[in-house]
Automatic annotation (TrEMBL):
Protein purpose: Catalyzes the phospholipid dependent N-acylation of the N-terminal cysteine of apolipoprotein, the last step in lipoprotein maturation.
The entry's keywords: Acyltransferase, Cell membrane, Membrane, Transferase, Transmembrane, Transmembrane helix
Family annotation (PANTHER family): APOLIPOPROTEIN N-ACYLTRANSFERASE
Keyword Cell membrane: yes
Alphabetical list of Gene3D superfamilies matching this protein: Carbon-nitrogen hydrolase
Encoding gene (name): lnt
EC number per UniProt: 2.3.1.269
Transmembrane segments: 32-50, 62-84, 90-117, 124-144, 164-190, 197-219
InterPro entries listed in its UniProt record: Apolipo_AcylTrfase, C-N_Hydrolase, C-N_Hydrolase_sf, LNT_N
Similarity comment: family membership: Belongs to the CN hydrolase family. Apolipoprotein N-acyltransferase subfamily.
Known pathway: Protein modification; lipoprotein biosynthesis (N-acyl transfer)
Enzyme superclass (EC): transferase
Protein's name according to its UniProt entry: Apolipoprotein N-acyltransferase
Cellular compartment(s): Cell membrane
Length: 504
């Protein structure tokens, strides 16, 4: 489709195609990982934006694209809010629909900006301007409010040949490059002679540039001897976890799994024991003594009530040879606290949220095992590259504990594993992942999964993991270059497009 060529009916371009293309784009995420379909979906979206008569129509098409994109990508929120959270079905549907509607505003803004910059030459528009707008709005989506960076485009390329770019540009930069790749293919189909020659040249030159890049592991180096680790997966269903009669069986299960492994570091999932720590002092004292006697450290996910501060925290606590505590910093809205005005809170009283948690401090000392610093994150925190960067480059190994049982047998646990893999690749560090019902995994510093558990089974993983030192360019600079580049290109694109329009 071109601006002067064949056009579909307006209702098709405005209402039908955008959400279908959004759904097609999500096929690139785990567990499907058909990133070729993501590329095709983005090509179609670029064509729709190029034909949009006004920025408002571009925003409209972007919103409907976003509605299809997020509805098919994060539908599983209904499982946590209604099935396990206890919210009435109507409220659960409303919350998911509201979340999708809000998130769809970001592609709507991209669409408006894309049409506003359409005065640029077609090649600049497709290869620089629209990718820059996408980059800017993905960065904003990860930052505005508490941030919700789930379904960032770059994750679809975790197994693609371009993955070597990740330690340099990070997941958001990779997503912008994917949009530029879609623009390149679109130019081959719909561009003028110059556009097609340029696009063909890029198709030839880009693989050569990838080949010349340093290998992902070249940015970091081994930092000492391997550490023996064990990951425990108790597989306690979320529907049963907090029933009082299941507390003692759960405690016995994790004690048995811990006793059966031989490792210097043993990792339990998030909130592995369904009880406040203050109520389980004797049990934890026993775990502490047994671990110290056998020369190991146990990282245990727990919910803690601080009597001094009179607040609840979601923590990972080190017992045994090493001692320490990490308090979760980035909490999940509507899962761990309600970021709503007081007059709305009565409407959500039916939601089964046992405690309202407090954010942990930004700066926290690393827990160390055999002199190896551990970069710990809890659940949703690993979706934020900036949270993982806080522990680097001091941390030699990354650890994420989570409870994806909240999402049952949906795509969410697979997407979450994909996110963890990207953090390992960005940092050039191995990452150890303990999930209550799976997927637990040992992830190498290149983002490859070395070992993983099946879902919904009691399981353990044992491995030798080598810590690493040094900093990738992404760890050093983070998203600052991406922010700067995106803002400059978008401002310049809008300004130049308006100027060209006035001159014309």
């Amino acid at each position: 489709m071109t601006r002067r060529g064949f056009r579909l009916a307006p209702w098709c371009q405005d209402f039908l195609l955008p959400p279908l293309l959004g759904g097609l784009v999500t096929a690139g995420f785990a567990p499907y990982s058909y990133y070729g379909l993501t590329l095709i979906g983005l090509m179609g979206l670029l064509a729709l934006w190029w034909q949009a008569p006004t920025p408002w129509r571009g925003a409209w098409r972007g919103w409907w694209f976003g509605a299809g994109y997020f509805a098919t990508g994060i539908y599983w929120v209904i499982v946590s809010t209604h099935v396990y959270g206890g919210a009435p079905l109507a409220l659960g549907v409303f919350l998911v629909a509201l979340l999708v509607a809000v998130l769809a505003l970001f592609p709507a803004v991209i669409g408006g900006l894309a049409v506003a910059m359409r005065g640029l030459p077609r090649s600049l528009w497709a290869l620089l301007a629209v990718p820059a707008a996408w980059l800017l709005l993905e960065l904003a989506r990860a930052t505005v409010g508490t941030g919700f960076p789930w379904l960032s485009l770059g994750y679809t390329l975790i197994d693609a040949p371009v993955r070597g770019l990740v330690p340099i540009v990070g997941v958001y930069g990779l997503g912008a490059l994917l949009v530029a790749a879609a623009g390149t293919l679109w130019l081959l189909l719909a561009g003028g002679l110059f556009d097609r020659v340029l696009a063909a040249a890029l198709v030839v030159v880009f693989p050569i540039g990838l080949w010349a890049l340093p290998a992902p592991l070249s940015w970091t180096t081994p930092a000492g001897a391997p550490l023996s680790v064990a990951i425990l997966q108790g597989n306690v269903d979320q529907a049963d976890k907090w029933r009082p009669e299941n507390l003692e069986p759960t405690k016995r299960l994790y004690r048995r799994l811990s006793d059966e492994v031989d490792a210097r570091l043993v990792i339990w999932p998030e909130a592995a024991i369904p009880s406040l720590r203050v109520l389980q002092e004797d049990y934890l004292d026993e775990i502490d003594q047994r671990a110290a006697q056998t020369g190991r450290t146990e990282l245990i996910g727990f919910l803690v009530y601080d009597r001094v501060e009179e607040q609840f925290f979601n923590v990972v606590e080190a017992l045994g040879v090493e001692q320490g505590r990490y308090r979760k910093r980035h909490l999940v809205p509507f899962g761990e606290y309600f970021p709503v005005p007081d007059f709305i809170k009565p409407l959500v009283d039916g939601v089964n949220m046992r405690y309202s948690f407090t954010h942990g401090p930004v700066e926290q000392p690393l827990i160390e095992v055999d002199g190896i610093g551990l970069g710990i994150s809890i659940c949703f925190e690993d979706a934020f590259p900036r949270e993982i960067r806080r522990a680097l480059s001091a941390a030699g190994i990354l650890v994420n504990v989570t409870n994806d049982a909240w999402f049952a047998d949906s795509t969410a646990p697979h997407q979450h594993l994909e996110i963890a893999r990207m953090r390992a690749l960005e940092a050039g560090r191995p990452l150890l992942r303990a999930a209550n019902t799976g997927i637990s995994a040992v992830i190498g510093p290149t983002g490859r999964v070395r070992q993983r558990t099946p879902q919904f089974e009691v399981a353990t993983l044992e491995a030798e993991v080598t810590p690493r030192q040094g900093a990738t360019p992404f760890v050093t600079y983070g998203n600052t270059p991406a922010w700067s580049l995106a803002v400059v290109l978008v401002v310049a694109g809008v300004g130049a497009s308006r100027w060209r329009g006035k001159v014309a």
